[in-house]
What does this fold into?
Amino acid sequence: MVKLLFVSQYPFYPDISGGSEQSALYLFKSLLEMGWQIEVICTRDLPYVPKWRSAYYWKSCWYSLLHLRILFPLSRDEELGYPCWRVITPSRFINEHSWLEFLDKRLREYQPDVVLGHTTPTCPLLNYAASQAYLTIYFARDMAGFESGDNTLIPDGVKVLANSPFTASIVTQLSTHVPKVILPFIEVERYQVSHRQREYITFINPIPEKGVNVAIEVARQLPEEKFLFVKGKWPGYSELQNSLLEQVDTLPNVEIWEHQQDMRHVYALTDILLVPSQFEEAFGRVIVEAQINSIPVVAANRCGIAYTLGKGGILIEPIDKPQAYVDAIRLLRTDDNLYTELSKLAFQNSQRQEFDPQYQVKKFVHFFESWV
It folds into this structure.
């Protein structure tokens, strides 16, 4: 039986729920079905996950009291089907020694065959496991930590995966590693709807990196169209999202939804998906999620987006000019033939073999086995 230990100095699902967490959940579920064992070590960072919003807060407190963990409060739940050790810290790694002491204890007791992390290449938990000669894999899902170009960021003992050809190319340029590409695991059943109404132009995760200012201006210039802004669940962005969305209060054509656990509610009402990303978007999984439902995408031609989009939408340049997005949306809304053609191409793109999550799970297992 193969044992995997996932480590993160950040909170994990459900305290945060981005594309990385959704991919990890699918991978872990698939590995469990193959007979693997899974454990998770992560944080519960209270400034980012207020106790009145956390489903596990009181369980954390109760567990800490039972085990007299007053100085190092720790919860253990199996809500996801495997043990998740959630360490409550007022700020990340406020006591790194205690962290590593606990990790060392879990490594000795659990004896994992592989330790996996996907937050940053400098994660102390991941690097400690590598220093103890465990097979350690860093799954690069964004460019966090690579901005400096320091090729010593990833220790030689750490194996590297990348979630897109773009990510792999950047890691190769900025480090001594040449990572294998394993794309995000996108479970079709979680996103496919049986019936779709062409009601909204949808924008997901309204934060600066995702282009919220561009999206707001696009909605302002298209008062005849209905827009749907769906909040994301990135750590530390809640107050910023709310502040930015105050501008939307003056726009009667924009509806705002809270974060949705079931994105089918969103895609069932989406006509066009708007993706004006302004940062180094490694993959853009919402593009494939939408295309599964034949939804054409208007997206910034930024980093890994072109690879993901294929021909199922319109790429926009320059990426920071709202007028370019406005023109593309108007074209799609007035040209039925173009919309029909791009809808067809969007669905076809979502059916690419490399977007099959089980195909990518097999690649992950093969990668692991090649190092055992």
